[in-house]
Design goal:
four-stranded parallel β-sheet, three-stranded parallel β-sheet, 20 helices, EC 5.3.1.12, glucuronate isomerase activity, Uronate isomerase, Uronate_isomerase
Length: 475
């Protein structure tokens, strides 16, 4: 069976009059450059411009949306190249065949929507994936990615990605970012993002080893709490010098508190010695989140919070394949009380900026939008991860717009390791926002000229403002 071409009106409203308005709105933003201020594409792909190896390692193995569904259907993760496992040619074909044989499981999901967009729009493959087309689709993709015009840098141009942020360990030397910044032939912005989560978790069994490494790269003595704080400040400055505009934080909660320095120092010493209690290490972690906000008021890094995930839910999978292998599960979240100590100190500080993301969509209208509707520093982050689906994105717009409109939101976040899905994801967002705006126009709640301005701003000035992308843009 051969699929029809992708429908030009996909995701647009069904009502003919509203759809026409949405078509015009979408047409005005369809070709605008992509700003991707939060994602997980490895910077070495671009610095080294290394050809992609095979369809599986490009499209399947990095994409937890895909492999977790296949795992739920009984396909072992070891057969999918998950967790950095290397597959030979035969293994890569078998993994791709698993996807094709289970293609029906993805009906109605955003994963299928994105992949069909990629298969047709990027690879020119118009047959439905199935056991019968597994080899043909694999061969077609392999043929395309073998060309020089499909190397990572060429794709940055083809996809028109103007800004791409990566997610980086505080101890990373950022040599790939430095190489890209120094390359006069590369005119796209690839920004590091400071991700200190594990260095702010004193309850980890490897915490002493982590802060020892922090001492090595910062030149600060992390044997004391004061030195530990200086080391984090040092690494943040290093990231700023290499173009970073944000820090990224994900913990079990966003409860915040401020400890006396003597108490923080006492708990820190106990954490290094392995004698601190769980209650004490949790308190220090919550204190350090406030310290991250304090540092942000000084170095200007935008602070993004995305709590609400029970990490590594299945211990055997963690042991076999490591973290980020598809078994992080959303949990209920609370922001209003938890962030009150942090926002009381920094919520109205001019230089501070805080973007709140969630996996618990019940807090969009109840907590996140009201916080963003008062505090100048707070922005409502876009739906992401389990919520970056068409219906959830629509619910988000309905939930927050009444309280904060459009200009206190972050712009779309693709949050992906699957490089080729970036244009499909951003295109989906533009279509959905065009539909949402079109309905407001059709209801005579918004003038059409205002809707056009908002549609453009949602993909240009809004993410640029939220992530302070004007900072360092000339460097």
């Amino acid at each position: 069976m051969v699929t029809s071409a992708l429908h030009p009106d996909r995701l647009l409203p069904a009502d003919p009059g509203t759809r026409q308005i949405a078509r015009e709105l979408y047409g005005s933003v369809q070709g605008l450059p992509i700003i991707s201020p939060h994602g997980h594409v490895p910077p070495e792909w671009l610095a080294q411009d290394t050809p992609f190896k095979d369809p599986t390692s490009l499209l399947l193995s990095p994409d937890h949306y895909i492999f977790r569904m296949l795992h739920a259907a009984g396909v072992p993760l070891a057969e999918l190249g998950v967790g950095g496992a290397e597959l030979d040619e035969a293994g890569a074909r078998r993994a791709w065949a698993h996807l094709c044989e289970h293609w029906h499981l993805f009906l109605g999901t955003p994963v299928r929507y994105w992949l069909e967009d990629e298969l047709v729009g990027i690879f020119g493959f118009t047959q439905t994936l199935s056991a019968k087309t597994a080899d043909a689709s694999y061969d077609r993709i392999a043929e395309v990615i073998a060309g020089d015009n499909f190397r990572p840098r060429a794709l940055m141009d083809q996809f028109d990605i103007s800004v791409l942020a990566t997610t980086d360990d505080p101890c990373d030397d950022l040599r790939h970012h430095a190489a890209l910044a120094a390359d006069d032939t590369f005119d796209r912005r690839v920004l590091p993002t400071f991700r200190p989560d594990k260095y702010l978790e004193p309850g980890r069994t490897d915490f002493a080893d982590l802060v020892a490494r922090l001492a090595e790269v910062s030149g600060e003595d992390t044997g004391s709490y004061a030195g530990y704080v200086r080391a984090l400040e040092n690494r943040r400055r290093y990231f700023v010098e290499h173009g970073a505009v944000s820090s990224d934080h994900s913990h079990a909660d966003v409860v915040t508190l401020t400890l006396e320095e003597s108490e923080a120092s006492r708990i820190y010493d106990g954490a290094l010695a392995g004698t601190a209690t769980e209650e004490e290490t949790t308190a220090l972690r919550r204190h350090m989140l406030v310290e991250m906000a304090r540092m942000a008021t000084e170095d200007g890094l935008v602070m993004t919070l995305h709590p609400g995930s029970y990490r590594n839910h299945h211990e055997p999978t963690l042991e076999a394949h490591g973290p980020d292998t598809g078994h992080d599960i959303p949990i209920q979240m609370e922001f209003t009380r938890g962030l009150q100590p942090l926002l009381s100190r920094f919520g109205t500080v001019e230089q501070f900026r805080l973007i709140l993301f969630t996996l618990d969509e019940t807090v969009f209208s109840r907590e996140i939008a009201p916080l963003a509707g008062f505090y100048p520093s707070v922005y409502a982050g876009a739906p992401w991860w389990f919520l970056d689906a068409p219906e959830a994105i629509g619910r988000y717009r309905s939930a927050v717009t009444d309280t904060i409109g459009f200009y206190r939101t972050s712009g779309f976040i693709d949050d992906t390791r699957a490089f080729c899905s970036i244009p499909a994801r951003h295109d989906m967002s533009r279509r959905l926002d065009s539909g949402f705006l079109a309905r407001l126009v059709a209801d005579h709640r918004l003038r059409e000229e205002d809707a056009h301005q908002i549609a453009t701003d949602l993909v240009t000035t809004i993410p640029s403002a939220a992530f302070n992308l004007s900072r360092g843009s000339a460097s």
